[in-house]
Amino acid sequence: MRGAISAGTLALVFLLAAEASAATIHGNVFEWHSLEPLNNVVIDVNSTPPQRVVSRDGAYSFELPPGTYSLRAEFYENGELKYVSEDRLRIQGEGRFIYDLILLPPLEGLDGTLDATELEPTLEANDFAAPQPATTWTPEKFREFLFWAVLAILVLSAFVEQAALLKFLAEEKEKFLRWQRQRAELIEQEHAKPVVSPAERQAIASEAGQSPALDAYAREVLDTLRRCGNRLTQKELRDKLPSVSEAKISLIVSELESMGRVKKIKQGRGNIVVLREGN
């Protein structure tokens, strides 16, 4: 009888020692895309004996003694497996540790290791977040990954847009330089032409027995004078030829006067243009 009591006491001592050295692993279960907590996730751990819990309010918790475990979480929707996660944990000491799970579409899961000896136990479960293994996706790491990915895309887009802008500016600069060269050539050609005054042109035409050549604007001025009784003020002439500027009208009238085709009579602040006979 005394031996049975001693054996029972010894077993109780071992059981209490095992429970005293157990670690509490708890955390939240998140959906990978929205990072929202998931309810009704079935979570299994291959402890001895095996344990299974169903997440409530997106949370779970296990009591595990030191050892290495496989933690598998499955989420079903309409009877079909929608998300899954499988992680490996290594517990080497007692305490309370947070280990969040991110469930992905049913592909090969990500493995991670939780080394309890590297963490300091806490009295309150929510006061300390256990560091996650480098290969484990936590919500914080996933958000950080998204941030850097978006930043990289924005930087790449900026470089592409800058390259396109530099190319456009180079093409516009080349067009401008080409226009400047063409303009300089035209100016040089104009300067190379001999300048002949209206009187000289008239003298040359008289020597050749020909009438001086008139441009289209001069002919239009003469035709307008003929239609209006061979006499108009210079202002009236300008009003009847709106396509010709005031300065151009003055030059044409002066040239026609030097050729003897019209006569200019000063009247107040203006001029009367009279078509000479025979024109």
TrEMBL record:
Keywords: Membrane, Transmembrane, Transmembrane helix
Membrane as UniProt keyword: yes
Keyword match Lyase: no
Residue span(s) of domain DUF7343: 219-275
Alphabetized Pfam families for the sequence: DUF7343
Transmembrane annotation, as ranges: 145-170
Gene3D superfamilies registered for this protein in UniProt: Carboxypeptidase-like, regulatory domain
Top-level taxon in the UniProt lineage: Archaea
InterPro entries: CarboxyPept-like_regulatory (IPR008969), DUF7343 (IPR055767), WH_DNA-bd_sf (IPR036390)
Record's protein name: DUF7343 domain-containing protein
Organism: Candidatus Iainarchaeum sp
